[in-house]
Amino acid sequence: MVRDSFIKSLIEIVGESHVECSEAGLMAYSFDATPNFQSKPDVVVSPANTEEISQIVKLCEKHQVPIVPRGSGTNLAAGTTPTQGGVVILFNRLDQIIEIDEENLTITVQPGVITKTICDTVEAKGLFYPPDPSSMKISTIGGNINENSGGLRGLKYGVTKDYILALEVVLPNGEVIRTGGKLAKDVAGYDLTKLLVGSEGTLGIVTEATLKLIPKPETKQTLLAIYESIDQASQTVSSIIANKMTPATLEFMDQPTIHAVEEYSHLGLPTQAEAVLLIEQDGPHSVVSEDIEQIALLCRKEGAIDVKIANTEEEANRLREGRRAALSAIARLSPTTILEDATVPRSEIAPMVRQINRIAEKYNVRIATFGHAGDGNLHPTCMTDARNQEEMERVEKAFEEIFAYAIEFGGTITGEHGVGEMKSPYLAWKVGDAGLEIMKNIKAAFDPHNIMNPRKMFAKETRKRIAL
Amino acid sequence: MSTIQKDFEERIEENELLNCMRCGFCLPACPTYIETKSEIHSPRGRIALMKAVRDGDIDSYEQVEESLNVCLGCRACEPACPAGVNYGHMLEEARAIFQEHNKPSIKEKTVRKTVFKQLFPNQKRMEQATSLLSFYQKSGLQKTSRKLGILKLFPKHMQQMEKALPQVSKAERSADTVFKAEGDTKATVAMFRGCLMDTMFHETNQSTIKLLNKAGCDVVVPNTQNCCGALHGHSGEKEGALDLAKKNIQAFEDVECDYIITNAGGCGAFLHDYHYLLRHDSIWSERAKEFVDKIVDFSSILIKLGFIDQHNLQVSPQYVTYQDSCHLRNVMGVYKEPRALIQAVQGGSLVEMEKADSCCGSAGIYNITQPDMSMQILDHKMKHVEKTYAQTIITSNPGCLIQMRLGIEREGKSDSMRAVHLADYLLEALVN
Ligand SMILES: Cc1cc2nc3c(=O)[nH]c(=O)nc-3n(C[C@H](O)[C@H](O)[C@H](O)COP(=O)(O)OP(=O)(O)OC[C@H]3O[C@@H](n4cnc5c(N)ncnc54)[C@H](O)[C@@H]3O)c2cc1C
Ligand code: SF4
Ligand code: SF4
Q1: Whole-model pTM?
Q2: Residue located nearest, by CA, to atom 4 of ligand 2
Q3: Are the beta carbons of B61 and A39 closer than 8 angstroms?
Q4: In whole numbers, what is the pLDDT of chain A averaged over residues?
């Protein structure tokens, strides 16, 4: 619990109307999108600028009060659940686009800008900001940067880290630093920009970011392929890549997902199908239509039972509908939905999905998998009920085994959602004990008093590794 | 355990609350979140607060109630929600519980009693009340009081509101309640006239009937029908709403019809919810289901019967823009049909405003109970309207219509801009 005098000092910094400590207010900030995590902060503040943030951080350092930076609270790793109480810092007043530089192809923004606003704004100028997490309508760029979020366009265009050129950051001692610049090349010292990207609010507070833009692709075309065997779908992905094509989107749904989608939106997907691929290519007209034709050919050659190419935007929307409905369909089937993001090299997708389905059966839990086939980023999603203790234990065991297999296949426990508090007990499984140690040392160098988002990323204890 | 908590436990289903996975996808759709950028005023925040009450995790009920009061009830959060959370139903139940436990001030009591128990459930009194308004307008008193500034005693926006109210003519109901189709009868429909529509917007109802006749509908207007109960339901007066629902179901069972037509999104959506409202009553819920299955908005039926192919529609050259009625769009899922109708009119060119699907801040009696938020939302809405250069704002709901007129008044644009109901606009186009 923080003292009244602490609250008073906060009010002096940001003004009374920007400090929230009513019971309902704290309750409204006690959770993010992570199931089963809830805990109230002591106070919620909305600073107006970097200077105020710096003062807040200094105050918190002095009183050893935890700080939880919070964008839109859509992360799935309990990254913004204030389990240690403290101050939640919002960026809802830092939501301005500062500059679009059409000469250097950059955009400079405050951390509270919504991802989709950035995309729309630059596209209106014929430019393109590719990272497009499914949550982009509400996620903030500060959250994207701190989770290093990916999206549907990841295979061809990369993820958030590939577009962050420069940052302004308030360090845990209140000092303000600027990293990087509007530069394609910069090797002056350690690359702090890259280190801060994906740091989940544990190293500092991002108060401004300069993002790289690229020219907007001329056009886009969409194709849907349906398979009776998941191996054929997986083989198609490999041959597309082997044929030196990089589709903009290469999305995948497995059989349980197809069943859920059919149950919910009756799109007429054959339920005997084991896999569906949604493939999109963008670029110049000539290249796109040639690529799509060739991809369609490859799909058929590898054994697709049906291949549909959209000729109009309307048709494209219809083809996208199934993949778009995947989460909705799954979420409606049960009270609790747990969305994971175990990731493997793309060559291992078929064996991984088979393992997931086997594991689901073994623990008698319902898991549907969809995701980004192009980059091996899978979303095994569990439909369960958090009130059922016994089932939740089985769910946890199933996910542990899924993580273990992902690592076994050369993959990772999380491809884009982050570690947060939820997956911190498994971090060492991926990075090893020595890896974890050096990460902890980096954290201590930035934040010796451990006030920045404590308990995130680093658990008290690593979960006992399971034998496969 | 407090009695409020107990009521929440009994009347708000845990499953429904847990269905919210807190993904936040509803946030960008929620007007009060957009205005405040605060989770206290977001759909998932409100759901969390209702859950906290149910679970006994919060004591400050008045803060929870305040959050629910600021909610517009526009239900834009529902179509945005991947998990299919039935927010509107939970909201209504929670408000009803708070309402039942409240000790309202004498003044509020009197107003509520007049509005909910005496005025709205009673068609005759509504007629008299609007006749008073009519008298007030026709007698020149309106002009005098405007000049004298008597209305200055009211908050600013109430003065503007007074100007935004329509000119009413006394609702003279012809004894004849069947209006025959022009040409062959393609369908027999029963018209839900709605209390506000029947009085303040009586002419719009007449327009609607004419359009339906032209489209080939025999239109019956059952005389025993009543107010839909939406204002009661949305304000926590649940018993009153239940009573009106039963009366209406009975009234429409008594006539033979293929469809029940509404021309007010707010009423339509509430009628649509009768099945849910009466879910605990085994006999009535069956009857309600049959009733609900017949409800359609007039725009859907016009499209269905090919109205735009049969008739030439023409207005003088102008830009028009369409403001969705929240409940028509979010609950009844009707948003394409009104646009298709508008686009079929020659001369009027439709320019979509940004966020046409977002609430205008009218929301029943919200613009009276939450004036500040309502006006903030309205002023932002008018900025979007302005960018379209529209001379005509078209809507499909009386509340929205009054609010848009209020918006025009606030912007000082009453010389160059007008707000009309879709039915009136179409009739104007037909006559031209
Ligand atoms: C349905 C659903 C779908 C999703 N789809 C995707 C997807 O396709 N791809 C993907 O990558 N993710 C996805 N996510 C996860 C989530 O949306 C992303 O992680 C997103 O980037 C979070 O943004 P936010 O603004 O909500 O950040 P928050 O959740 O508020 O915060 C995320 C992290 O960043 C930190 N943080 C936020 N702002 C700052 C700042 N200014 N300075 C320092 N630290 C800060 C927080 O402390 C926290 O650790 C999805 C989530 C949901 C619920
Ligand atoms: S969109 Fe639905 S599930 Fe997601 S937070 Fe809002 S109400 Fe909850
Ligand atoms: S009903 Fe409207 S105002 Fe209320 S929570 Fe939903 S979107 Fe927000």
Answers
A1: 0.90
A2: B23
A3: no
A4: 95
